[in-house]
Fold this protein.
Amino acid sequence: MELRDAARKLLEEGTVQGILGYRRGSLPFRTRPYLFRNPEDIEDLIFTPFCTVNLARYLFHLPRDCRKVAVVAKGCDGRSLVVLMQENQVRREDLYILGVRCPGMVDRRKLEERWERLGEEEVCVAGETLVVRGVAYPLSSFLEPSCRRCRHRSPLVYDVLLGEEAPLPPREDVLSELRCLPPGERWAFFAREFSRCIRCYACRNACPMCYCKECFAESHMPSFLHPSPTLRDTFVFHLGRAMHLAGRCVACGACERACPLGIPIATLFFAVAETVREHFAFEAGMDVAALAPFVTYREDDPDACIQ
Amino acid sequence: MRVSSEGRIVSYEAFLGWFEGKRVFATEIVSSRLRLPFPVLPTPKSLLLPQREVLYRFFWEKRTWNITPAFPSEETVFLLCAPCEARAVVRVLDAVFLESAPQDTSYARRRKGLTLFVVGCTFFGATCFCTRVGGSPLSSEGASGFVLSLPFGMYLEGEGPEGRSPGPLEKEELERVLEHLKQSAPPPFPERTPEYLFQAFGEASWEEVAWGCLNCGACTFLCPTCFCFDLAPEGRLRGAMIRTWDSCQFPKFTLHASSHNPRPHPLQRVRQRILHKFSYFPLRKGCFSCVGCGRCVLVCPVNWSIQEAVERMVSGAQ
Amino acid sequence: MRPLWEPKIVAFLCHWCSYAGADLAGVSRIQYPPNIRVIRVPCSGSVDPLYILKALREGADGVLVSGCHPGDCHYLSGNYFARRKFLVLHELLEFLGLGGRVHFSWVSASEGERFARVVASVVAAVQNLGPSPLVKEQEPYGTP
């Protein structure tokens, strides 16, 4: 495999001290992030449509002796790396970006829901179709919401880019269904979803942009919310996070996939990203030199919402 | 496990009928296997140690604090749960909140009203490892009723509706299930696991074992045995003291008032989770505080497995 | 007859303009609804969206944030930064179906009349929406 060869070469030549990549998990359709440090381990390195974790997060979990690291980056991981560079959290020279062309991530929950006891070998992705037990289905209906609305499936900043180039399928507006509902029903939907939250903070911890030493959700002085998961506290947590990530979130959807209860939290981030794109003409993770929308302003910014 | 003399066969409808008019809940594991019309809870912990619980209410008046304790009701509640989850209540939660002094009053009241009804397992799920930690898919420990769902109906022991005694064919089927379970049961961890792990505290291999964990609280919050909690007041001059779940994976879990944190590094927190379940607790109370339900592996965002971690550390220490 | 339910509204007013504007409304004896609880802040740019969320969490039915007109900020550009944050929060709340509870306005120190008008319109808008869905869920701790 092209990826393994490239990775092995990097380790053998000593270009990097480790490779952040994926290997098989203990359950079907699960992958585990892993820091490959020995060329012998590279055999375990995989890249499948189930590599849902955003590896940029793991830059904060590197051992001290790992000065330069290669990251297996799909489009969203690559954009996250750009934001982290923009925010001076990592330096370009400490990174080797092993870009991979991403087919889109398949929602394993959808597969598990539809087919019982499905094995990983019974599923394969070929172009824009998903073949399950010999029957072909359109891939887009099984993709994660973040992948259905993805604009850039390959990283924009990289050292090498592996895989075959494929045309980007049409982008789907995953929020249109919600936006069509009357406000009361929309709130009913979000209230129902928020009340399921147990505040395990998996969404936050899986997010590559949530690197604060102390999160506002856990801060005591000042305290913004109570640790118990009532609707109003969960509301503050998710909205506070959405505001903190405005203009920084690359819409990778890692939060949603990390959620043990399957709450569609990423919809909030998509909505914020759309607002930022529409009004400030900014998209996160495109350009290392660009200024984030909240650290700059224009005198003619829209002010329709202000009396 | 054997076919007990009081074992009887009832129909699915009769079984459900017996619960009519009672307050019944089912845990997620059970309700995903049997289609049950009862409200679903993640684990028995949600009933006994709710994630949000008012311990007392307070207000400040005439330059003094007025405090009214809040007691939960002792109302009778039935819970259909898996054998591992019943063990989590009887062996771990009870040991911590009932059998240790002082007793936890609100837990004791809730526990008094709770009747456990165990639904035995006829197979090992992908993440199940109850037999590794001393449990059994057919254990009825702590339960007032035990039921096993089989192709020909429900096999029932203890409390529950009346039924007929199993015929020879049904007995044979039952034997077959037992034999299959015995064959596929994962072997137990070595007997001296707690001691091995205790000595392995300073091992360098923890770093690799713990790597990958994101330090979220999904595993601990959805664990049937994890009982750590936090007390947080709500309101200033008038409000309530609220008990919520807390997780040893959170950086603030061990933060002292002095700003010293004994476990600042993620690795230390992962090690604590493993050692508490597989070393400290068994050394003090005589049983693992992990019942092997495997939910933590299932819900983990990165598929981190505590079972593999223990296996690895134990094999290293041996 | 006055309605039974009166909304509670938290108002974050910038020290240099809107707070002075509110003051002017007061000394000029201009009538406006008494539903607002004023919190004085140095600048509208210092209002973290978390303050607004926390106000809603603590039981406010609505929030008003008011600062200097664009170009008049005492700190030169605070309200320009604020405007971007407010826009995003406004759109997000709208998306959640909670639109109409959080309001923003520019009121200068000389606009006492305008301040009264803004407050009246905010109170009317929130009154129309009814109690906040986050308040309904709040636990009553009983009266002493």
In short: The radius of gyration of chain A is 20 Å. Chain A is about 30% helix and 15% strand.
